[in-house]
Amino acid sequence: MTGLVIVGHGTRSAAGVDQFAALVERVRRRGDIGDVEGGFIELSRPPLTDAVGALVARGHRALVALPLVLTAAGHGKGDIPAAMAREQERHPGLTYRYGRPLGPHPLLHDALAQRIDAALAETSPAGAALADPSPAGADRAGTWVALIGRGSTDPDANAEVAKVARLLWEGRGYAGVEPGFISLAEPSVPAVLDRLRRLGARRIVVAPYFLFAGVLPDRIVAQSAEFAAAHPDLDVRVAEVIGDCDALADLVLERHAEALGGDIRMNCDTCAYRVLMPGFADKVGRPQRPHDHPDDPVGHHHHHGHDHHDHGHDHGSVAVVGGGPGADDLITVRGKALLDAADVVVVDRLAPQGLLAGLRPDVLVVDAAKVPRGPSMAQEAINAALVSHARAGRRVVRLKGGDPYVFGRGHEEVQACVAAGVPVTVVPGVSSALAAPALAGVPVTHRGVAHDVTVVSGHLPPGHPDSLVDWAALARARGTVVLLMAVDTIAKIATVLIEHGRAPETPVLAVQDAGLPGQRSVPARLDEIGAVAAREGIGPPAVFVLGPVVALTTGPST
Ligand code: SAH
Fold this sequence. Notes:
This protein starts with a strand and ends in a 12-residue tail after the last strand. The longest helix has 17 residues, at 74-90. The strands form 4 sheets. It has a 5-stranded parallel β-sheet with strand order 11-10-12-9-13, with helices on both faces. Strands 14-15-18-16-17 form a 5-stranded mixed β-sheet, sandwiched between helices. Strands 2-1-3-4 form a 4-stranded parallel β-sheet, with helices on both faces. It is α/β, with parallel strands linked by helices. The protein is built from 15 helices and 18 strands. The chain has 4 domains: 1-99 and 244-308, Rossmann fold, CATH 3.40.50.1400; 106-238, Rossmann fold, CATH 3.40.50.1400; 317-430, Tetrapyrrole methylase, N-terminal domain (Cobalt-precorrin-4 Transmethylase, domain 1, 3-Layer(aba) Sandwich); 433-552, Tetrapyrrole methylase, C-terminal domain (Methyltransferase, Cobalt-precorrin-4 Transmethylase, Domain 2), CATH 3.30.950.10. The structure holds S-adenosyl-L-homocysteine. S-adenosyl-L-homocysteine binds at residues 325-326, 350, 372, 400-403, 406-408, 431-433, 436, 484-485, 511, 513-516, 540-543. GO terms for molecular function: lyase activity; metal ion binding; uroporphyrin-III C-methyltransferase activity. Keywords: Lyase, Metal-binding, Methyltransferase, Porphyrin biosynthesis, S-adenosyl-L-methionine, Transferase. Residues 318-529 form the Tetrapyrrole methylase domain. It comes from Micromonospora lupini str. Lupac 08.
């Protein structure tokens, strides 16, 4: 048998807690769905862990967990699943099916309409000032509705409130229904009331799209009263929240049945965590995180086990991002999204510098200045900077040239983060090893010409005691060789390759500053490339590509 745990997010309002408890009791009294408990993830009692503990103590190992939220936003997508994950750690073997958010749903829209009509049925507090002082009754045609949602940093959640506003208006005969938000989103309560006033509204019902009493519904009442006081010609009333009622219990039972039946789909088509939405690049591809609400009157939310800090993200993190070979637009979409969301960017000299111009002015840019052979910030210092910024709660992007793992020391940085317990991800990049030849018109492989391509560091010359490269094997191979960091060693490398059997006339192309405005390439035979590169002043960054494919060069593409 499955137990049902109804999960609330918690409130500082005693009335709100009582309404939640009453609803849980109402659902329980329906009797036919088994064992029911309710709990909160924060702020209020009983905590979720007690509710789950009670069900487990009565022998339940398989639960339905229903988030008692109207829209899918941070609580429903992130905080409640995280809290349930902690319960699963506490109770090994515990499984649960997760229900959908409650709204939008016709039962809710009907309940809202009832609350609105009830507000209309009351004698107007400002009635004496109106031409017609009689009770308004349910004069929907003369009534505008401001439907006020909680508001979220998640555009999908805000869009749901707009959808409910529309659905509430459809067929019910109100003059109009406009959405607004008490927190985190626009329009605010005064803004939506002013909009309705300009549209010619004389009577407005403010309808909180909230399940239960709480700090934010109270604030809706206060802001509406303030607006009404400033506009004595308007009749402004505030409807009750949805509250504990049969309709809500019916909806809980419907969501419960859906979860048991396996139909627990959410609308993910417009989810900012899946789809890149304008202005929300900081969300796409990232896990939904526990969050805080900057305007919470009593300070931040406190989710178990998470620390808060000044930026409003619970945890810092590091993304080691490959920036591509140098052009601003050869970074990946994912890398760019993370860069746009970064608080700190630790950047290499070879990373696309043009991308830095697009950063918000408050982003801290740290120049790691790892110029080959030049003065460099020690790798340990870079690792330490990544870890300490992340630990301070910042979103850190380590922006590197090309791909982070191609001679980029990217994995050392990842290892340092892992060792420090800092969340870290890698975003692959377009490596200069492949991009520089391509941008210069050389295909690194071609059917019938080269079936292998080897990417080699020329940093240590052949014969160097620390070299790990089998130069003799490279000389014997027939395919393409791409040499990075080889400006100083190319003459020596060419000599050794010829000594071990590569044909002296093998074509080579030196490609400097690939993808940058100064890109240039210089061709030569293998036995002449050292002298030609020196004479032409080839300097870093440059790659050398050699092998039969170089004979196919079509010329640079831009
Ligand atoms: N992780 C980088 C490589 C770092 S090693 C990548 O994947 O591209 C640095 C070497 O990369 C340079 O010495 C040079 O050989 C090559 N390189 C980087 N950017 C380059 C560019 N824009 N043009 C040509 N070579 C480049």
